Every structure is written in structure tokens, then in C-alpha cells.
Amino acid sequence: MSGHNSQEDAEADRILMVKKILSAAFYALASFMITVVNKTVLTSYAFPSYQVLGLGQMLATILVLWCSRSMKMVQFPSLDSSVARRIWPLPLIYMGNMATGLGGTKELSLPMFTALRRFSILMTMILERFVLGIKASWPVQASVFAMVGGALLAAADDVTFSWTGYTLVLLNDGFTAANGVYMKKKLDSKELGKYGLMYYNALFMIVPATAIAWCTGDLESSAAYPHWSDMLFLAQFLMSCVMGFVLSYSVMMCTQYNSALTTTIIGCLKNILVTYLGMIIGGDYVYSWLNFVGLNISVLASLGYTYVTFKRKPAPYMLLNDANSKVDTV
Question: Got the DSSP string for 119-142?
Fold first, then answer.
């Protein structure tokens, strides 16, 4: 009997590991694609407003999930007076994360953007310790500090330095860390489910975000943008909007099956491709040896974290949605 149970436990561990790896790979692919598409729209096509692009992503998320629920493809609770209490503070974090992320993408070269995004890993590790009670092991901490050190080295010799860009990206790091940790907490509580969290995040913030875009003149400047008739631009703009939904879904899946820290680091790990492609895409990267060395140290540390995270065999207690488990702390 014990042998049968051991076999079942081993099979459960294998299935869980497959789900963890596939959800992480899905998030990495979605994050990579939306970063490149956003950079093309905002820099190569010089679209005037990252706020309006963010509105398009919110609207796409609302429409896709509303239609899916109408067709009985997904389920999530209907809107009532308790929803705002159950989802808070995720909508505010969601809007801040989207706005600062798109703004940072526009202001900085992709290699520097991706390097500075690694500060979100350190912030996530700290928040996990205080909010979820999860303490990272020494191998994880060492790889995180190496990533941040490489980013600092790259920033020390960034000849395209921009106060606006650096501020937006560091704010985005904070919002990303908070989003991952609080999303993990909400997913573990199972109050709204992943589809409810995605839908109401976008629904609650689309009106305030529209008001901000109108007050700043972004709606007017976007309406006057001369390339709306360019089918290639329009296709990439719509792709960015849809990818906003895909990215949100992939974040939910990765956070559900892994830890918030792993989700954050996987998002930075995919930046290995973005870092090197970014030296070509957008045309705003300026090479210097110190900057290049720093970027590569950060990339290698990302690979090191991935190795120490996924090399070990998951323990039987690693149950899905256990808020107090030590999943992915090695």
C-alpha cells in the first residue's frame, strides 16, 4: 500500500513540476513578445502615448473575458458590493504597473530597461518575506544580488541615462513586486479566481485611467496620430492590446503554480533575448564595455537562479495554492 502511495506521490510531483515549467515558459514567451511589440509601437512608430496603449490593453482584457463568460467558457463572480473589498489593492497596483512599465519602455533602450527591471526581483524577495512569510534560500539570494549588481554596473556607464526613464522603471519594479506578492495572496484565498482578478482589475481602473489620459492631453494627441491608416502599425497596436490580456493571464498562471519571486525572475529571464535583440530593435542602444559587461553579469545570474530553482525535486508538501509553503525558495 505504501508503495502505491509513493508512486502516486511521485506522479503528482511530476505533474506539478510540468505545470510549473510550462506556466513559467508561457509567461516568459508572452512577456518577451509584448515587450518587443510595445517597443516597436512606442519607439519605432513614435506613438505619442503609452497611457492610451495601456487603455487599449485594459479594454481588450475586459472584452475578451466578458465575451468568454457570456459564452460559458470561463466563470468568475458577478459584480457586487463586496468585489472591490476582495480585490483591493490590486487594481491600483495593476494600473501603476502598466503605466510605468510602458513609460519606461518608451524612455529607455531595451537593454537598460531589462537590466533595471531586475530590481523588481530584489523588491519581490523582500515583500515575500514580510507579506507571505517566505524566506529565500542563500543560493536564491546570491543569484538575486548578482542580478542587481550587474544591473547597477550597467547603469553606471549608461550613456543614454534618462531621469524620467530610470524613475519610471524603478517605480514599475515596485508595482511589479507588489502585484506578484498580493496576486499570490489573492489566488491562494480563491475568492475571485484568476479570471475574476483579471477582469475586475481592468474594469475598476479603465475609467480613472481614461480620465488621466484625457487630462494630460494624451487622448487628443493619440487621436491626431497620423499613422492610424497604416495597416502594419494598426496590426501591431492591436497585437499589443491583445498581448496585454495574454500577459495578464500568463502572470496569473505562473504565480498560481510557482512563487511570486519565480514569476518576477522568469519575467526578467526572458529579457536575455530582449537584452540582445534590444541592441538592434529600436535603434536607441549605445554600446560601452562597462555597460555591456554589467548586462551580461545580470543575464548569467538570471540563468543561475533558474538552475537552482528548477533543479530540485519538489517535496510532497508543495501543494498548489498553499500560501505558507516554501515553494521555489530552494
Answer: HHHHHHHHHIIIII-----HHHHH
State how far the Cα of 271 lies from the Cα of 97, in Å rounded to an integer: 17
The residue assigned the cell 524612455 is 107
Residue 224 contacts residue 42 (beta carbons within 8 Å): no
Instruction: List Cα–Cα distances, 312 to 22, 141, 307, 324, 329, in angstroms.
Output: 16, 16, 9, 19, 10
Per-residue burial over 147-167, b if 16 or more Cβ lie within 10 Å, else e, is bbebbbbbbeebeeeeeebbe
The predicted-structure confidence for 33-53, as pLDDT tens digits, reads as follows 887 788 788 877 888 887 888
Lowest mean pLDDT among 10-19, 97-106, 154-163, 273-282: 273-282
Q: Using CA atoms, how far apart are residues 240 and 292, in angstroms rounded to an integer?
A: 29
Q: Please enumerate in sequence order all residues whose Cβ is within 8 A of that of 85, keeping only pairs 6 or more positions apart, or say none.
A: none
Contacts of 108 (CB under 8 A, 6+ apart): 116, 160, 162, 165, 166, 169, 284
314: nearest Cα among 4, 11, 2: 11
Residue 190 has pLDDT above 80, yes or no: no
Q: Exposed, middle or buried, 194 (CB in 10 Å: 0-12/13-18/19+)? A: buried
Q: How would you class 317 by CB atoms within 10 Å of its CB: exposed for 0-12, middle for 13-18, buried for 19 or more? A: exposed
For residues 128 and 260, the answer to whether their CB atoms sit within 8 Å is yes
Nearest one of 29, 31, 53, 159 to 106, comparing CA atoms: 53
Rounded distance between C-alpha atoms, residue 230 and residue 210, angstroms: 24
Contact yes or no for 115/155 (Cβ under 8 A): yes
Alpha-carbon span 83 to 221, nearest angstrom = 35
Angle at 142 between CA 168 and CA 119, to 5 degrees: 0
Whether the CB-CB separation of 259 and 321 falls below 8 Å is answered with: no
| Angle, CA 174 vertex, CA 324 and CA 91 arms, to 5° | 80
